[in-house]
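cron nightly-structures :: item 1 of 1
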Amino acid sequence: MLTVTVTPRGQITIPLAVRRKLRIGTGSQLDLFDDGLGGFVLRPRSRLQATLAQIDDGTGADAEAEHGQEPQAQGPHP
């Protein structure tokens, strides 16, 4: 088990070994799920999930194209 500490700004540092195993880095998106047992599960968001979420909330490439903008590159994802 690993323990992390919450900073005054509400942030945590994910240990390097965990970041390597999950193949996440700066800009990676993570999903947080309630496990129903008083805890939470943190999981890397796949590129497909991120794209679908952007389309659903109107911030994806299609929405940008409608406003005459070039789609923005996303951070590294597994």
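cron nightly-structures :: done
Helices lie at 16-22, 47-57, 61-66.
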